[in-house]
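User: Quick one: structure for sequence A, then sequence B.

Assistant: Sequence A:
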Amino acid sequence: MSQKIDGNLQATAHLRSIAPGNKPSVSTDAPARPVEAADSLKLTGEATSLQALQRELSTAPAIDAGRVQAVRESLQNGTYKINPDAIASRMLELDQQLQK
């Protein structure tokens, strides 16, 4: 089943409200049948890989403590090198990506 979504959605089903305490009646004329599963879902290899990556990233720490310590030490020692050309280049790349 497919439907076109164009932003002009119109309700096709009408809902009726049920007052508290008034439950809709259930017909007991026919015996209850189990619901059969008609839909199935199969993940592609890419989706499975993305799920595994998401699980891995959710358990990884947000900050690399080793990298932070290395930068901290190089700042304290005065050995941290700043490359303004690399910084400017990356900023321009990011700007171009955001404009797409």
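Sequence B:
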Amino acid sequence: MGKLKLYDINTPRETIVEERDAIYLSRTPEQRFFSVLQLNNISVTMNGGKPLKSPQGKGLVIRKPSI
């Protein structure tokens, strides 16, 4: 799993974006790919085991769950 970093609310957003960009760009393409898979796995887990995107006709569409 990745690390959770908490930022001070006084830290400018630009500084946070630059730091995250530097971390992302320092990774290999393989690491980037596996981090996307990891995020997908986390999103499914947090959505009660249901994917956020599912096939509906042609292609993938994002839909809100029916309550």
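Residues 13-47 form one domain. Strands lie at 53-55, 60-62.

User: Thanks, that's what I needed.
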